Amino acid sequence: MARQVFAIQPLPGREMCDFCCGASPTARLYACRNFIIPRTKHAVFQHESIGAWAVCDRCAVLIEAGHWSQLTDRAFRRFCKKHGVSRYEEFEVREQLREIHQLFKEHMIKEA
Ligand SMILES: [Zn+2]
User: Fold this and answer.
1) How many Å lie between the centroid of ligand 1 and the Cα of residue 45?
2) Which of 19, 49, 62, 101 has its CA 20 to 30 A from that of 38?
């Protein structure tokens, strides 16, 4: 079965939130060291996460507060709405988002 390719990773020049893919204008940029998106061996995507992540107001609040699971929930809900994720795929998609957010957390460059 050919897998649908999900574009979770940030794309250069995109003007929407890299977490929730929301229509809300991005309010902040978070510098982040590069990391490899997990589970690429399943060929869902092979992509390096590069540079700054654009983040909307609401997601920025969650990041600042360290509410990572809420951030993942929010991103997951928005992602499902946008891409029409089936029940069968829900778990995997949510896990991917969670892993990506965890990696972002580990690689983000905190402002002095
Ligand atoms: Zn957002």
Assistant:
1) 21
2) 62
Per-residue pLDDT of the chain in tens (112 residues, 90 and over written 9): 344 445 455 555 556 788 887 766 777 888 888 887 766 544 344 456 667 888 998 999 999 999 999 999 999 998 888 888 889 889 988 998 999 899 999 999 876 5
Ligand 1 center from residue 19 Cα (angstroms): 5
Give start and end residues of each alpha helix (H) in 27-112. Answer: 57-65, 68-83, 87-107
Spacing, Cα 53 to ligand 1 middle (Å): 10
pTM of the model: 0.76
Cα distance between residue 30 and residue 64, in whole Å: 11
